[in-house]
Amino acid sequence: MAATATTFSNLSLSPKLPTFLLPNTPSTKPRTLKLKITFCLSLKQSNDQTLTTQNAAVDNLRVVFGAGGTGGHIYPAVAIADELKNTKPTTQILFLGSPNSMESTAIPSAGYDFDTVPTTKLHRPLLSPKNIFLPYNLIRSIIHSYSKLRDFEPHIVFGTGGYVSFAIGLAAKLKGAKLVIQEQNAVPGIANWVLSILADAVFVAFDSTIDCFPRGKTKCVVCGNPVRLSLKKQVSKAVARGRFFPSSCEIGELEKAKVLLVLGGSLGANAINIAVLNLYYQMLLENENLFIIWQTGVEAHNEMESLVKNHPHLLLTPFMHSMDTAYAAADLVVSRAGAMTCYEILATGKPSILIPSPNVAEGHQFKNASLMADLAGASVITEDELDSTTLGSAIEEILGDESKMAELSERALKTANSSASVEIAQHILSLVNLSTSKEK
């Protein structure tokens, strides 16, 4: 096992990985998600002496994270940062992001230092007049990022996506720092696709994503998506349901109930909200054992609240602050197909109906949903197909079949890797420690 750890550490120094990481070798045939994750898990079996040596190689590890824009980029970075701090408490971590952004509040709330750099946004199409100042803004962002890196002197820079991470990644290579990136989606965006050429390692969630990168077979490591720490806590279904519907606990309604969780996104998904609005009350009338937890999104909540009828089995909320409790309570999830939401559904073993947003760049959500259908049997409804009839039929088909729900739950759990953050943290330590040893 010590030999395995030593061999893996060569990842950062050569454009070609050792044979045990390459496709078409006995150690990785067939190329499936399961075998890739099995490889990652095997790294955790290193003996205590090896781990002690790795942890001691860099006394004061310094890591910069470039993450921003959405929770799908921010939360994986925080999960990895948490694991690094857990493994090496002396690790110094700095997050760089955009001012007046989601990350500017989320990162300090998570307990990490945060600094800002100007953001460079790529508008579509590429020849849009809005991109006329793109070269200037990108150079300005790279200069600011370089200055922050020079002051902090990180051993490694970690990008999880978003416009801000692109300039930070380029600055990292100009600075001579190690660069790794993590792609949450089934297919990469433009920023991560370009950065992958410069990166020392690329962490991906799914085996099929490897072929989407220009040097995927020599740089990609499949470890899954890091999920927020709270989702790893064991909250019982009974306790979770009691928190959402406390008045129903006394008469034992929740023991035989079916709970539908509808996630309209943090800001709201109008198509989903309208479809649910047109079917929720009839479903509740026809099924006395059905309960609905409905996240409308902040911007849509007031309108939805004014239109829905009060019902003891319906909980309407603008935003879900305790997603771990919501997933634990649910039997079925109706949601958009953002990368992290999809992986959280897998990690919690929930059957799902996914309605991908057509407005996301590169068709990420449709590709995420398609992969979820292949791997975990998720039902996919496009917005063109979505109405109360198609959604209602899909919900009834799953909730009405206990054996199907059990099968879908099992497939989801088998697909997910709940130890992704642990494995990525170990890879980072191996990469930094080997680089430090070579410099000495």
From TrEMBL:
GO biological process: carbohydrate metabolic process; cell division; cell wall organization; regulation of cell shape
Pfam family, one: Glyco_tran_28_C
Gene3D superfamilies hit by this protein: Glycogen Phosphorylase B
MF terms in GO: glycosyltransferase activity; undecaprenyldiphospho-muramoylpentapeptide beta-N-acetylglucosaminyltransferase activity
The keyword Cell wall biogenesis/degradation is assigned to this record: yes
Residue span, Glycosyltransferase family 28 N-terminal domain: 63-203
Lipid metabolism keyword on record: no
Glycosyl transferase family 28 C-terminal domain sequence ranges: 259-416
Stored HAMAP family: MurG (MF_00033)
NCBIfam families on file: murG (TIGR01133)
Protein name, entry field: Glycosyltransferase family 28 N-terminal domain-containing protein
Upper lineage: Eukaryota, Viridiplantae, Streptophyta, Embryophyta, Tracheophyta
